[in-house]
């Protein structure tokens, strides 16, 4: 396969407009957990921060002067509103049909997912920021048993149905007692007013969801299965939450699925179990599978990398892999040849193109055939050139690289604008802070 990145790939790091998000502890050489979120609506760009502050900015104010988005702003714009979410604000979605209009308000609702003591999901009026509803997922998954970020109730995914104004969410909580490790999780269907229509509860760890285009099915990927729930993928009927079918890579251990993506009647799956990519038909029938970062022997070590993200659209599928790990040791100086890589395939599993994303991708943003990969550090290489927002065309592989001084950890995109969160980073063997905590905005050509 041809590598999409070359010296001819456009780089536009100077064209980001920037709004400060305040202070955050710099990341170190290793990547950290999800600490930020960004979301785009027709009128707003909304940023969620680790301290719980959620800020909504007018898109017009952030998209610069007459030269277009990405031009430098003379003055940082005032936000439309700012709210203090009950927990760390780590996920954002919007509901077009949510809520009733009042006092000149709007029917649109901004939904924020939290990681914290309550695992709160809350809906905010898009016009005013007023809280319309709140649901604490800790009531279902339980309260944290230790004062550590890994034990906090965590809303890992949100999916909004634009046609119905309904919302789907997945929350989880981890606990450990000696050698006993447990997950508690719930998948929710919410009405637009925050009323829970159904719950789907398991003792596994959900990591990703995707809603079918017709709104009738919800795919949920489970990363860790160490209890009674022993399958990596479930597909639920959205009206009632009824289980339609399941699928699993059939591998040993508790690692199963990293991400899922609907494309019509098919579901693409990034498998943590065997480090492969799959395309499944109705009922979970396997259409094809491809090796992505399967265990590979290098210099006497067996190395692998997890396929962490997948996006499928119009018969094409792209997978993104993450960090290198060694089977027999915690540390390794070697790198898997397919770590930090994006690879695309057609409906017959024929390779289309691939490229090195170079740094860890916390989350893949997608709009149709447009893919946006916010790339953070690569802790084994520690090269600041990995700090970037990379854009791809799913069909052709055409790429653009937006360089950042800090690490890119979240992104959102639509037909006109790309927004990303930059976080500062301090490598453990350097006495330097690179980048800042900021919302970056640029135009799309």
Describe the structure.
This protein is about 0% helix and about 50% strand. With about 450 residues, it is an all-beta fold. It is globular and about 55 Å long. The model is unreliable at about 1-10, about 65-70 and about 100-105 (pLDDT under 50). It has one domain (about 15-445): YVTN repeat-like/Quinoprotein amine dehydrogenase (Methylamine Dehydrogenase, Chain H, 7 Propeller). The relative contact order is 0.13. It has helices at about 60, 140, and strands at about 15-20, 35-40, 45-50, 55-60, 80-85, 90-95, 110-115, 120-125, 130-135, 155-160, 165-175, 180-190, 195-200, 205-210, 215-225, 235, 245, 255-265, 265-270, 275-280, 285-290, 295-300, 300-315, 315-325, 340-345, 350-355, 365, 370-375, 390-395, 400-405, 405-415, 415-425, 440-445. The strands form eight sheets. Strands 22-23-24-25-26 form a five-stranded antiparallel β-sheet, with no helix packed on it. This is Pyrrolo-quinoline quinone repeat-containing protein. It comes from Halopiger xanaduensis (strain DSM 18323 / JCM 14033 / SH-6).
């Amino acid at each position: 396969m041809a590598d999409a990145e070359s010296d001819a790939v456009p780089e536009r790091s100077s064209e980001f407009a920037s709004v400060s998000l305040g202070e955050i502890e710099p990341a170190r050489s290793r990547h950290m957990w999800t600490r930020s979120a960004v979301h785009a609506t027709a009128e707003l760009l909304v940023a969620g921060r680790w301290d719980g502050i959620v800020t909504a900015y007018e898109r017009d104010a952030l998209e610069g002067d007459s030269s277009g988005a990405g031009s430098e702003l003379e003055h940082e714009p005032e936000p439309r509103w700012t709210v203090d979410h009950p927990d760390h604000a780590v996920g954002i979605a919007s509901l077009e049909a949510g809520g009733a209009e009042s006092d000149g308000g709007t029917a649109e609702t901004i939904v924020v997912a939290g990681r914290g003591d309550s695992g709160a999901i809350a809906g905010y009026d898009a016009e005013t920021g007023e809280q319309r509803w709140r649901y604490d997922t800790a009531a279902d998954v339980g309260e944290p048993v230790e004062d550590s970020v890994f034990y906090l109730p965590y809303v890992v995914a949100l999916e909004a149905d634009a046609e119905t104004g309904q919302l789907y969410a997945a929350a989880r909580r981890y606990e450990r007692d000696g050698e006993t490790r447990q997950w508690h999780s719930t998948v929710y269907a919410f009405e637009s007013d925050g009323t829970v229509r159904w719950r789907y509860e398991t003792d596994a760890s959900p990591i990703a969801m995707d809603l079918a285009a017709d709104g009738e099915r919800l795919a949920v990927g489970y990363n860790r299965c160490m209890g009674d729930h022993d399958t990596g993928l479930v597909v639920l009927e959205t009206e009632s939450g009824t289980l339609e079918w399941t699928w699993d890579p059939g591998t040993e251990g508790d690692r199963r699925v990293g991400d899922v993506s609907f494309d019509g009647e098919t579901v693409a799956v990034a498998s943590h179990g065997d480090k492969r990519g799959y395309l499944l038909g109705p009922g979970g029938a396997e259409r094809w599978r491809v090796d992505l970062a399967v265990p590979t022997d290098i210099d006497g070590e067996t190395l692998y990398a997890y396929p962490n993200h997948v996006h499928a659209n119009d018969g094409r599928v792209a997978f993104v892999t993450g960090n290198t790990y060694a089977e027999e040791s915690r540390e390794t100086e070697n790198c898997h040849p397919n770590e930090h890589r994006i690879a695309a395939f057609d409906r017959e599993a024929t390779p289309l193109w691939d490229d090195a994303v170079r740094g860890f991708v916390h989350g893949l943003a997608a709009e149709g055939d447009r893919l946006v990969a916010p790339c953070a550090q690569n802790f084994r290489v520690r090269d600041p050139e990995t700090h970037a927002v990379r854009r791809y065309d799913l069909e052709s592989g055409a790429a653009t690289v937006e360089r950042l001084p800090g690490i890119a950890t979240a992104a959102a995109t639509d037909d006109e604008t790309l927004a990303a969160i930059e976080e500062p980073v301090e490598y453990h063997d350097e006495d330097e802070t690179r980048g800042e905590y900021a919302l970056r905005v640029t135009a799309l050509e």
